[in-house]
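Quick one:
INPUT:
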């Protein structure tokens, strides 16, 4: 996450939904237990493991000890290990590959939706903007206080989906289930209408959209909206999509981001749209699944519906925003066709690496990044806050 967005999260009131989500995401469990399980699973001696992590820190990917175990890199040969990328290098890659002005525009979900509509791409409409500070809503209903929220919800069709206008990771997202007198009911509980903007939203601007349902062929895979994440490399009219994943929310979750406990992520064959490898969790205890853990539905080998239409939409949208030469799209597939949920400049390497169990930096991607001026091999650990070349001492964690 970029420094400015991280600081915004840190500055939010603790009672806000986004702050609560961020705190939950940061609770990564017991590091000692994580490392002990990794040592047991790898079969390495402590000295060999330390040396291997030391080399990962110094590699092009700048992998930390935690990421080394997160991706189970000990299961791979040295060549594959060198292809894993830390998210610590993502924002530098983002800045080198993308026009700063266009990237800033698509970071704003309200403006991005308007740009997608103007370019002719199907997307989820924004019905209202909850923002006490600004009434510039591009035609959506402006909600600046509790009375306006009451009026909007009284006329709305539920459920609705609401998310911060300019944060990443679905932090603070909620599903609005209904209005009872002056109480708003959501997936996160119920709150008095006068407390929604200041307390639950923490003063952040939010966009409100209709709640979209999955294509009927995906009904056994997720209750909440599942999205296809495409990773695009754009050079002129040429669009390459080397990685595709499907993000599946577990029951009860409002969004499909993988940090939410129990959510699944699947590697998808970019050519066929067939699910190849599906996982839940990370690190030594990661589960590779053949069937859905709740419904029992088949996962591996499933063909995603309307794949040709998804590919066509992805390429057309990528070309429309060609100033973002490294970009990612989230696409939902509905019974009415695919929809662009979000467009991002850049895109975390994590979903592709977790889903596939392989490193993001294929030779083709490495060559593309070098053409954009991103020579990862020449970057030093010090640039990313890794000031020491000392191996990670795991002994205090192993007991």
């Amino acid at each position: 996450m970029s420094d400015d967005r991280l600081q915004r999260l840190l500055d939010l009131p603790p009672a806000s939904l986004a702050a609560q989500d961020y705190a939950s995401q940061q609770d990564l469990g017991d590091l000692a237990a994580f490392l002990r399980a990794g040592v047991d699973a790898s079969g390495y001696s402590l000295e060999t493991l330390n040396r291997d992590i030391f080399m990962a820190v110094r590699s092009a990917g700048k992998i930390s000890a935690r990421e080394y175990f997160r991706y189970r890199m000990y299961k791979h040969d040295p060549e594959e290990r060198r292809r894993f990328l830390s998210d610590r290098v993502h924002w530098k890659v983002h800045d080198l590959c993308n026009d700063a002005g266009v990237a800033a525009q698509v970071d704003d979900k309200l403006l991005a939706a308007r740009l997608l509509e103007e370019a002719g791409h199907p997307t989820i409409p924004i019905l209202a903007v909850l923002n006490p500070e600004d009434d510039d809503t591009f035609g959506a209903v402006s909600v600046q206080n509790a009375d306006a929220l009451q009026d909007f919800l009284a006329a709305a069709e539920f459920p609705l989906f609401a998310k911060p206008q300019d944060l990443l990771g679905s932090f603070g997202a909620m599903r609005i289930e209904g209005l009872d007198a002056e109480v708003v009911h959501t997936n996160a509980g119920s709150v008095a209408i006068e407390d929604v903007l200041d307390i639950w939203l923490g003063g952040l601007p939010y966009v409100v959209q209709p709640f979209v349902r999955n294509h009927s062929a995906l009904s056994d895979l997720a209750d909440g909206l599942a999205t296809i994440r495409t990773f695009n490399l754009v050079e002129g009219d040429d669009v390459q999509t080397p990685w595709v994943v499907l993000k599946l929310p577990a029951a009860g979750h409002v969004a499909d981001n993988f940090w939410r406990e129990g959510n699944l992520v699947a590697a998808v064959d970019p050519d066929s749209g067939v699910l190849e490898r599906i996982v839940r969790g990370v690190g030594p205890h990661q589960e590779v699944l053949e069937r859905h853990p709740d419904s029992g539905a088949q996962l591996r080998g499933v063909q995603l519906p309307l794949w040709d239409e998804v590919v066509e939409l992805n390429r057309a949208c990528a070309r429309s925003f060609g100033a973002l030469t490294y970009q990612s799209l989230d696409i939902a597939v509905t019974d009415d066709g695919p929809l662009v949920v979000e467009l991002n400049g850049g895109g975390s390497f994590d979903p592709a690496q977790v889903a596939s169990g392989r490193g993001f930096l294929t030779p083709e991607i490495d060559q593309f990044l070098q053409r954009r001026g991103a020579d990862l091999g020449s970057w030093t650990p010090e640039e990313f806050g890794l000031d020491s070349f000392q191996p990670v001492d795991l002994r205090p964690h192993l007991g």
